[in-house]
Amino acid sequence: IRESLQVVRSRDPHIHRMPFLDAGHKLGKKEGGGGGSDYHALGAMEVICSSMAKTLQTALRSPDWLRGNYMAVRYEDLVVEPIKTLRQVYGFVNLSVSPEMEKFALNMTSGPGYSSKPFVVSARNATQALSAWRTALSYQQIKQVEEYCHQPMALLGYERVGSPEEVKDLSRTLLGKPRL
Hints:
Blueprint: H1 2-8, H2 37-60, H3 75-80, H4 82-92, H5 99-110, H6 126-130, H7 132-136, H8 139-156, H9 164-168
């Protein structure tokens, strides 16, 4: 909650506030891990997604000084094709990838473990982490994220889910081609 509140405090007061899709979802309820944490997390998500949308719009309509000087990399691309993506990033900054760095990237994305702690840097099964949200979040929570973040999601090639069954079908990728 503390981190979410810090992000929410940076909110532009003129920004359009999104409504809750399910205004009663976990708010004020202790069972199910609620207690208002969803409310603060949604406020933070609104700020983060709004900022990301502005950044991506700038990238789409690049001023001359920015054109060719940035590269967008999705986490999913790094996880699915770590060596290819790593080589693209290094090539973008005119460096070559060492065999040690390739080995490190493979280890970090295909390790044996999986941590539920999102910012722990360790070798993990990144493809498992890639789809963890599909089993950890409810359909209602996923729809709320899509509502708040539809602009950056569309620009980055993330598809919306159509049903709870589609969310749970892990054989179906929800990644499309990014527009950047």
